[in-house]
Amino acid sequence: MSGSPSALRFLNDRAALEALLQHEAITRAQLETLVGLSKPATSQLLARLEKVGLVERLGRREVGPGPRAQLWGLKADAGFAAGVDVTSQGIDVEIADLRGTTVAQHRAPAATDEPAAALGAALGEACRRAGLGVDRLAHVAIGTPGSVDAASGVLRYASDLPAAWTRVNLLQAIGSVLDVPFTIENDVNLVALNEMARGSARDVRDFVLLWISEHGVGSSVVVHGGLVRGATLGAGELGFTPVPDLAREPLPGVHRFGDLLAGSALLTLAGTHGLTAGGPIDAIRQSLEGDDGFLIDVARRIAAGLAAVVSLLDPELIVLGGAVCSAGGSALRAAISEALAEFVEPRVRLVPGRPDSDSVRAGAVQAALVPAREHYFSAGSSLGDI
Question: What's the family (predicted)?
């Protein structure tokens, strides 16, 4: 390897920190093997990183051959990141250290006015519970419905949120309150990140996430391991796609995919099957227990929206999440697969999403940890000079 001493130091520091992130505790000799350095170089590297507070000693190895070797680990509390889920019900905040371990959570009421101030207050309270100042956050990822227009900074496609969230330049408003780096990300994109980190899409590089709840439809597309956001950050808004109604007693004309799967539309469809339900989840459960005609019609409506996506992207799998998909379970997935086989040639696996109620917040933490770790790992032992 050639290059200036400082460049080599940066590369070696980063490689060591990445290795320590993957292992709870390792010896110097193990780190030598992982990063390919000599014994003296590894010892110097650990001394540098310990001096700036990025690694720590974790006692000594109690078992195994040879003397009791010193164990080293990433100093997880060297930095922190925050994930935020903004909904019409509230502002949900989680603070995590560099390993991704949760150190504090806080849920604040929904902000009907001054959303940026409410967001800042919620973050401040979460940090207080963690014993931190907000300035200790290396990055904050904020999940919302819809997407922020890159030119105007205005949040679009977020009719479920109080109007105050969509009337201002949200990027500018939050930037005036938070003095730390932040990003605003579509909530379903964050669910997709959560699936990649700890769900059905681990080790999968090409997939589509379809999220159907009683409040609406959302989707996310991952290609080559990365989110597809589009030129105006509006990619994946499958709910706005015009599709035909493929139910056996279809509504005439062409409709938005999201409109056909809205809670009110599903209740109307349930009525045509003689079901009297308090909501779409109840209707699906009734259909599972009796006549499955309603479930099949729901599956055909879902397949109508997925058909074009499957033909265009040929994903490895489709993750079905949200309360409606969870309620339908394996029976709904089987019915969707059968309907898709009628319309498109590629065969795609349908898998359930994680049932977590905190999937958006968990995905936001994953999103925030990427730049947070980048900040510390790329700086390495030069952190003390910044």
Answer: Belongs to the ROK (NagC/XylR) family.
Residue type at position 290: G
Give the closest residue to 174 by CA, choosing from 146, 145, 141, 130. 141
Residue 1 confidence (pLDDT) = 44
DSSP run (H or E) holding 319: strand 317-321
Token pair of 152, please? 């105007």
Ordered DSSP codes for 197-252: HHSTTTT-SSEEEEEEETTEEEEEEEETTEE---TTS-TT-GGGSEEE--SSSPPS
The answer on pLDDT for 302 being more than 60 is yes
Question: What count of Cα atoms within 13 Å lies in the side-chain half-sphere of residue 322?
Answer: 24
DSSP state of 262: S
Measured distance CA(268)–CA(371) in Å, rounded: 46
Is the distance from CB of 218 to CB of 233 less than 8 angstroms?
A: no
Longest dimension (CA), the chain: 78
Q: What is the Cα–Cα distance from 256 to 268, expressed in whole angstroms?
A: 16
What phi, psi does 88 have (nearest 5°)? -70, -15
**Over the chain, what is the mean pLDDT?**
92
Q: What is the pTM of this model?
A: 0.89
Amino acid at 108: A
Cα–Cα distance measured from residue 156 to residue 149, given in angstroms and rounded to the nearest whole number: 7
Nearest-angstrom CA–CA distance, 257 and 238 = 7
pLDDT by residue (tens digit) across 303-357?
Answer: 999 999 999 999 999 999 999 999 999 999 999 999 999 999 878 999 999 987 8
State the distance between the two ends of the chain, measured CA to CA, in whole angstroms: 26
Please enumerate in sequence order all residues whose Cβ is within 8 A of that of 128, keeping only pairs 6 or more positions apart, or say none: none
**Distance between CA 240 and CA 157 in Å, rounded?**
10
Torsion angle (degrees, nearest 10) of CA 214, 219, 220, 223: 140
Tokens 């990183």 — which residue?
A: 49
210: β partners: 219, 320
Distance CA 322, CA 239 (A): 14
